[in-house]
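Tutorial sheet, problem 5. The two components below are modelled jointly, 372 residues in total.
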Amino acid sequence: MTTPAALPWHGALLAAFKAQQVRLVPYVPDNVLKPLIAAVEADPFFTAFPVAREEEAIGIVAGGVMAGMRGVALMQTSGFATLPNALASLACAFQIPVAMVVSERGTLGEFNPGQAIVCRTMRPILDSLGIEHHTITRLDEAGFIAERALKQAFATRWPACLILSPLLTARPQ
Amino acid sequence: MTETRPNTEVMNRAALTRRIVARCTRGEAIVGGIGNSNWDLWGAGHREENFYMLGSMGLAAPIALGVAIAQPGRRVLALEGDGSLLMQLGCLSTIAERAPRNLILVVWDNGSYQITGGQGTPAARAGTDLIAIARASGIAKAQWAADEAEFDALLAEALATDGPHVIGARIDQEPGRNQTPREPVRFAMSFTAAMARPV
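Model answer (structure tokens):
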């Protein structure tokens, strides 16, 4: 899939979700993700709703996908950092294709020292669990990367993580 | 209906789990929480519609919620311990907000982290009422079962009427006697296949 030039990054992700039949979208709110959250909530194709904790979203997506409804959990970097146990003992141990979209904070202009520090844990956690992750930095690649990463997760029955860099979400495109 | 925990009889998790499984004859999905909750589920007799958790303490209800949303035509039960639920109390608000008609959460309350040495939970020490929390979270049909007869009645109602339902059972300290085999991939695949069959 290629991203039409007119589509914003959240539109490219939404199209990738649809192309891969990803309908269940529990999320923990995040300012960067706001347009994506608004778009999936406004589209009846999706069942999108807020949850209280990122672990909860992982459980919901795991249950949904085993019951035939593909899903993706939306969160920000600091929320991802709460997940290693749930990813290891649920998504990885059971080989459940739990998809995640993480908006990356803690880099490229972060003002909060806590976010900057926790951000450094994200890729080592993903790497140590053997979870493929892709950092999306360019609008023209967003749709391709998102759709292919989701496709591979479902085909290989393994979790996947899309990291949305400020290069994608904050840089003028 | 029983409003508060002190008015309940102390029951036995394995015996109640057998009563649940005996009533689940229509392809109901059952998610067993970590440790004793799923060991007793395994001990009650394996069904492919059972999902036995390994870790991820507190996620039985969220996993069941995901199944319930994906398959509104199938009843879905989560069997969760009090300590586990205490780790993920926010999921009660999520369940209340989604209001899945087909979801049943059974809470086994022995007031302790039984499998790690029987230490008391802060909730037990403080007198926290988990079913009252469920009601206060917005789940109207949340009740303690006073005894086995009332447990049966609440379960029958939950299996036959719109939920979400939460049933609390005060249980004794008997450990799970039947360890579930640690074969997560096998169970995930059999559960997935079972969920693909019509109800």
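Marking note: The longest helix of chain B spans residues 148-160. Full credit if you identified this.
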